[in-house]
Design goal:
Elements lengths: L10 H15 L4 H19 L2 H5 L2 H5 L4 E10 L5 E12 L5 E7 L5 H17 L6 E6 L8 H15 L8 E4 L6 H15 L19 H18 L9 E4 L4 H12 L3 E2 L1 E4 L2 E4 L6 H13 L5 H6 L4 E4 L10 E3 L9 H9 L4 E3 L8 H9 L3 E3 L1 H4 L2 H15 L5 H21 L10 H20 L3
Parallel strand pairs: 3-4, 3-5, 6-7, 6-11, 11-12, 12-13
Antiparallel strand pairs: 1-2, 2-4, 8-9, 9-10
Helix pairs in contact: 1-2, 2-5, 2-17, 5-17, 6-7, 8-9, 8-15, 8-16, 9-10, 12-13, 15-16, 16-17
Bound molecules: NADPH dihydro-nicotinamide-adenine-dinucleotide phosphate (NDP) and (2Z)-2-iminopentanedioic acid (2IT).
Amino acid sequence: MISATGGPPRVEEFVREFMNRFIARNAGQTEFHQAVGEVVESVAPFVLAHPEYLESRILERLTEPDRLILFRVTWQDDAGHVHVNRAWRVQFNNSIGPYKGGMRFHPSVSSSILKFLGFEQVFKNSLTGLPMGGAKGGSDFDPKGKSDREVMRFCHALMTELQRYIGEDVDVPAGDIGVGQREISFLFGQYKRLNNRFAGILTGKGLSFGGSLIRKEATGYGCVYFMERMLETKSESVEGKTCAVSGSGNVALYAIEKLIDMGARPVTASDSEGFIHDPAGIDRDKLEWLKQLKEVERGRIRLYAEQFPGVAFHRGERPWGVPAQLAFPCATQNELDERDARRLIDNGVIAVAEGANMPCTLAATGMLLRARVAVGTAKAANAGGVAVSGLEQSQNALRISWSAEEVDRRLQDIMTNIHARAAQYGYEDDGYINYVRGANIGGFVKVAEAMLAYGVV
Ligand code: NDP
Ligand code: 2IT
């Protein structure tokens, strides 16, 4: 890595050599390559300027998870048929606190996806300023179409194995795609039964058993708070802006709620079947109907277009062609590509805040950055969820509960601090703030310092 002349090689050469080795070690794991590639490109100049990071192989250590646990989950459906699923927990890095990160249940879950998510979580959690390491887990189990009892039996079977590896000072999982309060409740119940302990070993719990107020809302709310901080740097605000939102799950619903609270006009929502366009805007009453549809009935987004006049459902399409000043991708990874970025730019988008993890492809991000659109990268913009998870851990440890106002105030402070930290490392010569680079470096520094301090471990 150090060049033949003993000095540091040029940044591009360093990145290329590093990534070649990395890709060879992680063949076929394309999502993991994408997440690591972006970070390595951002931090390379910083690392090259600090030889101690090079000598201690901090980047090699940061891109190799501490451990990856893979296990079989066997469960029975309502008809008594036996099913076998795969589940994982990727404990990525615990240099600055116990492992922390969500569990995802979706048929697409693979070790590549969980490694990308666990890697991102390390930087995101560092940016929150709270003492949390990074992890992610999940299963290829598909909760869609399963009864509550089937989901319960699956969750109980999964926790029967997972309980060996978690603990309030070890690793604290939470929700993600396909894992909400129903699943967290089943998981918590089984942990408690097996261990005879009532402890904060999961976050996103129900309010009656140690959950925090505002955790459900936190990722979506935090994403809008982050957007507001970005817009303030342009003497703008979300008020009155037309917003394109994707997804209709936990993150999207509460991003839409906060946008309505702040006087913006969210006009789209989506799921894996397509998107709805409501030019009049999703208002409070429509949102309450949508929450009932998605959180209680687990119905499909197309029903929104049947329920409300003047709404179109676009099957198999994504919302990025709808004219909007602000965009909030809140569904899943790689849901906004170069063509979508082009359409957003042509329609005059001024800022994007990523509620989902890695929703923009690398090419889309590059195009938005070049067009000087403010890009609130996921690690920064969606950190509100895990931040309130951290606050839930604190409340559990203290055996107290904070009011909704208290948690929301702390969430707003944390999002403001994350914005400041990402901006600190993200300013470019023309005054543009590159939050992608800023968040990567801002998240990296604290973790790297701790790793250096520990010596060769
Ligand atoms: P949910 O399961 O509540 O909702 C997911 C939404 O995204 C659904 O509308 C779903 O549609 C859609 N979606 C999922 N996969 C796909 C796909 N492959 N193609 C198109 N649409 C898809 O999950 P969350 O809202 O919790 O998570 C959304 C994103 O936010 C994820 O990237 C997650 O990692 C990220 N995130 C979540 C946090 C949290 O606290 N929950 C915190 C930070 C980030 P359908 O129902 O049709 O599958
Ligand atoms: O991606 C994420 O930050 C989450 N799914 C939330 C993790 C958490 O531990 O609350």
